[in-house]
Amino acid sequence: MAYNHGREDRKWRIWKEAEEKVLRECGVDEAVIEQIRTDDRADFNSNRRFYRWASDFGEYLEGMADREKQSEVRSVSDLLDEIEDENLYLALITVDRRTLQIVLLKMQGYSTKEIAPLVHLTAGAIYARLNHLRKKLRKIL
Questions:
Q1: Is the CATH code 3.90.550 the one for domain 76-138?
Q2: 3-class DSSP state for residue 74?
Q3: pLDDT of residue 58
Q4: Average pLDDT of 23-29?
Q5: Considering only CA atoms, which of 34, 40, 38 is closest in space to residue 15?
Q6: Using CA atoms, how far apart are residues 78 and 97, in angstroms rounded to an integer?
Q7: Mean pLDDT throughout 136-141?
Q8: Angle CA 14–8–19, to nearest 5
Q9: pLDDT averaged over every residue in the chain
Q10: Where in the chain is the domain with CATH 1.10.10?
Q11: Residue 9: CB partners within 8 Å, gap ≥ 6?
Q12: Buried b / exposed e across 37-73, counting CB within 10 Å, b at 16+?
């Protein structure tokens, strides 16, 4: 969402007037109140510059994300097609299909307990397969 200076300025003024009212009720000198207002305005302007830049940068990143549509990996063959490292590819094609299915489900955010019934294995067997794959990848990579 873009930074809206007018809205933020209005919110700052309302906050500042309420604060100054409390300070006056407490008997604070007008010169001190004016100094606090000047300092707070400098902080507001500093924040405005930052948020305006951050907003522009966020819009830039959103635009980049739209341009680079990432294909979602939905199957084991999609997973293998997306791998660019030749050593990793060679390691993964030697692994059985069920282990690759486990890797794919892990990438999609499933927990081991959720994966177990999907691949008809126990959670311990899944941990063992992933551990075996890690060891294999450490040797190759």
A1: no
A2: coil
A3: 58
A4: 92
A5: 40
A6: 13
A7: 82
A8: 25
A9: 84
A10: 76-138
A11: 44
A12: eeeeeeebeeeeeeeeeeeeeeeeeeeeeeeeeeeee
